[in-house]
Design brief:
α1 crosses α7, α3 packs parallel to α4 and α4 packs parallel to α5. It is globular and about 55 Å long. The chain has 256 residues and is of the alpha/beta class. It has a 7-stranded parallel sheet, with helices on both faces. The termini are far apart.
Length: 256
């Protein structure tokens, strides 16, 4: 008999960890497969949450490592009930502050890894399974001095919305999550020595509440999950206002 599993990337901390915490209470899930780079953090996660977790140390920015992980999926008798693509990172600063290597790594993790994980997991998803792809409020407008990260999240939002339509015949549902700033260690990796950098993090949200609403919306087969008035206002503004005006507002808000 197939095991029902939930697969969470970027699971060792922040939003990913909150998804894991919530999935522990789902009686339909036999195992939670958690993916992150840091094996020590994964071990700590398993120690905290118990034997229901199966841990995998994978650098999702490396294509070959994802394909090696695919072999584990192929060799296992599983139904992937939830695929949660949460892993990602951003860098603050202008185009000439962030190195080429960091820029490409950001694209590989934020975009290529999400697409690859979807493509290798969908064949192992039965009817009624769910994909949750974490985009961002930053996908609603262009963001100078945070431009690569925000642009990768536009791709995730559009890709996920379209994939949701393509998978309807299979009764597999894709929910795109667009959170505001989250109170996580995201900022530790994002900050640089750039003279011009985002510094006003209005609309900061709690990861647990974002994960809770995302799972609820996913189980309701919603295509989009947006939490909080700040994100909802940004979503509406992105539809109604010119992008040049939105960028001007962003620059003033960030004192740039």
């Amino acid at each position: 008999m197939k095991k029902n599993i939930a697969l969470v990337t970027g699971a060792s901390s922040g939003l990913g960890k909150e998804f894991v915490r919530l999935l522990l209470d789902d009686s339909c899930i036999d195992e939670i497969w958690t993916i992150a780079r840091d094996i020590e953090k994964l071990n700590a996660l398993r120690k905290e949450f118990g034997e229901k977790l199966v841990i995998f140390s994978v650098d999702l920015s490396e294509y070959e490592q994802i394909r090696n992980f695919e072999k584990i999926i192929v060799d296992s008798n599983i139904n992937i009930k939830f695929l949660i693509n949460n892993a990602g990172f951003g860098k603050f600063g202008a185009f000439d502050v962030i190195s080429i290597e960091e820029s490409i790594n950001m694209i590989n993790l934020n975009i290529c890894a999400v697409v690859t994980m979807c493509l290798i997991c969908i064949p192992f998803m039965d009817m009624g399974s769910h994909i949750i792809n974490v985009s961002s409020q930053s996908s609603f407008q262009p963001l100078p001095y945070f431009n690569i990260y925000a642009s990768t999240k536009v791709f995730i939002r559009h890709y996920s919305r379209a994939l949701n339509i393509e998978l309807k015949d299979k009764c597999i549902y894709v929910t795109t999550v667009c959170p505001s700033w989250l109170d996580t260690n995201f900022f530790a990796r994002s900050k640089t020595n750039a003279k011009k950098s985002p510094n006003n993090f209005v609309g900061m949200e709690t990861p647990f509440l974002i994960a809770k609403k995302a799972l609820k919306d996913s189980k309701l087969n919603k295509a989009l999950s947006i939490y909080g008035p700040h994100s909802m206002l940004s979503h509406l503004a992105g539809k109604l206002l010119p992008q040049s005006l939105l960028m001007s507002i962003w620059l003033r808000q960030q004192n740039l």
